[in-house]
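=== Structural record ===
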Amino acid sequence: MKITTTHTLFLPLIAASLCLSACGDKVLDYRNADLSNGAFYARGENSPFNGTVTNVPNAVVFNDPDFTVFRQAVAKAYGSAIQMAATQRIDLDQFGRQASALLQNTGLYFPNNGADASVLCTVKVDDGKLVGKISCAQAGTDNVVLEAKIGNGSFDGPIMAYVYDSGKQYPFVSATLKDGKLDGKDEIYSPATHKLIYSASYVGGILMGTEDILDENTGNKLQEVKYADGKPDGDYTRWAPGGNQVIAKGTYSNGSLTGLEEGFDPATGKKISETHWSSGKADGEARKWDAKGNLVALRTYQNGFLATTSDEQETRFAEGQDPNHPAVYVPLATGPTDNPISAPANPSQPVQAPSNQTSASPDPSNEDIAHQIQQASPEAQPPVSTQPISQGTSSTTPTSSMPDVSKLSADGPAAKRCGWVENDMPSSLTLKDRDGTWNIVGGQVSGEPAGFDHMPPTDKGDSCGCLTVQTNRQSMQIVKIGGGELKPVAACQQDKSLK
């Protein structure tokens, strides 16, 4: 017995339907079609339909797990590129809504399982099944926003998504799928400037070769990461917004950091941090300098464990890392210490594009889109391969002895704390106020505090700001962030309690 579903839709693409009819091809409007076991039938017919079906909601055509993985990859890469190029704070909630609207207008996403569809497709079917080219337009218009191909029962061939600016069509996504997996070049363009902002190469859904993220305004690179078998492998470089100043560089081997990693001031280009890595674990000295080149922090690691530190407070926190690996306080030498020409650090890390081997829900909601965008945020998502510097261990080799920040209880209600926000992400992120230095990311716990997405974005180095937070004084850890804002640096410079 045939199970049928019907939808009542607005009438788009009338001209296309008339043309198809005139050319002798059988044409069926989706409003007059039934679906049974994934096959199209003309209403009341017992044999599957052969010909062209018009006005098909994009949710019906693209409700496929492989395609869901693809569009989630698009959302995440797009979010990374836009946020890396931003020169000031981005409201992630607002950006998520804007990105959701963009992806829905191009047909890549659809709300409510296709109800009230805004993108309608013209498809070919053979024996009731999708075959060949798919062309989708915004409802009630001739504006084609999505094109794809079906072959051998899966998406196979070029896929293009478009945006319109002043009535002119521009590419938004250009990729190729083979057996439903990304295969070949995957490119994303800015819907605002129409410049290339993301480029990567895939083989059978696996990221291979170089992945580039580019500035939507200048066209310069913001990040370059080499991949092999879906893992970072080789040199990576990160640039500040605009793409004119390197802010981080290092080397990966089979997904883990190795050798020297360096961080640089985005304004001056001076080295501000360095760390040595071995198989994803910090091993050796890690240093940090201020803007004048004075050494302000020195740590040593042994196979991922903190061994010595110039911060006496860290020795207390390190007591929980491993009884056999105690951390020793070693104060810095008095007087300024010059920044050497070469050394290592843990600055911003590359944001990994999602693998197309990951399973996904076939019906993502608007909230799922915003989640993909927020996961792409350099602040919202930890880098693919490193934990905070005080742990000295990459995420590919997690240290189970480190307590998670979610296990810490707050001492009391949220309070507003103002002071210096020191950003050495992903190594560490702290707030120094009149009561001391509070760890936001780093310290001797793993993970991020609840509400971390409310943390105002900051550049490398020191910023001045206020955060509404709940804290755990015993560990000097911020356990929840309710909100925050940045203030002029002069406000902290003039606060004598912060000296």
